[in-house]
Amino acid sequence: MRDQCTQQRAGLVAQVQKYILDDKAYAYPVLWWWRAVPHARELLRASAEDAQALNALANALFQCGQLDEARRRAEAILEHRRAITELAKDHPQAGDLAYQIIEEENERSERAWNFGLISAISRSRALLEAARAGTEVARHALVRGVDEAYYGAALATAKRTAAEQSLAAAEEFEHITALNEHAGEVPEVDVIRARLQTAARRDDLAQARQAETIANAALGTLLGYGITKSPVIEPLPQTIDVRQIDRFTAARVPHRPEFAQLEAQVRAAHADVRVARADLLPAISYSVDEGFDTPSLAPAELRKHQGILATANVDVPIFDWGVTWSRIRQAQLRARGAELQRELIIRDLYLQFATARQEALTAADRVENARLAVADAERNVSISVARYRAGEGSIVEATDALTTLATERLALQQSLFDYQVAVARLREAAGE
User: Fold this and answer.
1) Residues 391/392/398/401 CA torsion (nearest 10 deg)
2) At how many degrees (to 10) do helices 117-182 and 188-223 cross?
3) How far apart are CA 322 and CA 343, in angstroms?
4) Could you give phi then psi for residue 321, rounded to 5 degrees?
5) Which of 282, 370, 386, 428 pairs with 148 at a CA distance of 20 to 30 A?
6) Residues 280-291: tens digit of each pLDDT
7) Residue pair 312/239 in contact by the 8 Å Cβ criterion
8) Which residues contact 181 (CB under 8 A, 6 or more apart)?
9) Residue 424: band (very low, low, confident or very high) from pLDDT cuts 50, 70, 90
10) CA–CA distance from 123 to each of 60, 258, 262 (Å)?
11) Are the CB atoms for 284 and 112 separated by under 8 Å?
């Protein structure tokens, strides 16, 4: 201190100490003992029970915590520096002491390296590729889900239209039967049977409208429209092109994103084995500290005891009661399990392609068969109603013909829907 008076110097020192410890006390000096323990190898090694995703998340959170702590520490140091600078302006004699107190903020740098670091990086990259492939798999599943929901809504609309046509035919037949009954040509029981037929068709129409409303709400929710706004839906295609099925071949199956995901998972499992084997090799860690080590606050003493402390440690594993070999064996078993899982899933993917292709072919045959059946059912209704009006056929024959026509119309729309869904699944199974 520049002041020669010992009492005044003591008073200035007491003011600075009181300000630091009472007003700006970010840390209190206590007795402590520091011991460097290399632990990066433990952080890089994942135990048998830890999942890869949780380990990556924990490391990311740890890094974020270190970043936040460093930011808070830097802000505290800047605030500390500004407060000491203001105190030095008010008391010029305390300038040197304030500057040296600021220098007590030491800087430390620690690093560690072992032979499993490269393998750990390879494992992380493989897991990242697997996650990207999984995202592509989810996108394909979303596309298939939207296709099924869209064609489901179109099917509900087609069934409602078919139910309206069947109801119109039933009402017309009921009207004809009522005229014949008033003319005394048919008994009253025929009119009752016609009314029952019309009631059944009304029930079918109510159920079809209910299914259409639910399907539109489901599709609107999936598309983000909500339940109040119905999406615009094109009618269910009434024609099909069987030749598009031949465009999808088994040679396209390996292009599915599941293959890339499985390969990445297998690479990550093998990298995990290399990480476990790295525990048998030495690990190196070092730290660099910058600051001063002296109980005196005199500027001259601080400059004499200021410097850099660098330490390095080499951890050579000798014997750990077989723990490392157990981890290696566990990693090998997990890698073998990943390979077996890959083979099983690949077989299942080819099975999915064969199943989807056969479903598409069967649906195409059903569409043609249902189309012919609808034509025959319409012809049967015309003949049965004509025979009934001429007095040659019974009411049961006419009502059965109307019921058969309604059933065949619904079967045609169902087969068209099954074909569109089968083609969508076949497209996904072929990797498109």
Assistant:
1) -160
2) 160
3) 32
4) 60, 30
5) 370
6) 888 788 788 777
7) no
8) 187, 188, 190, 191
9) confident
10) 15, 18, 14
11) yes
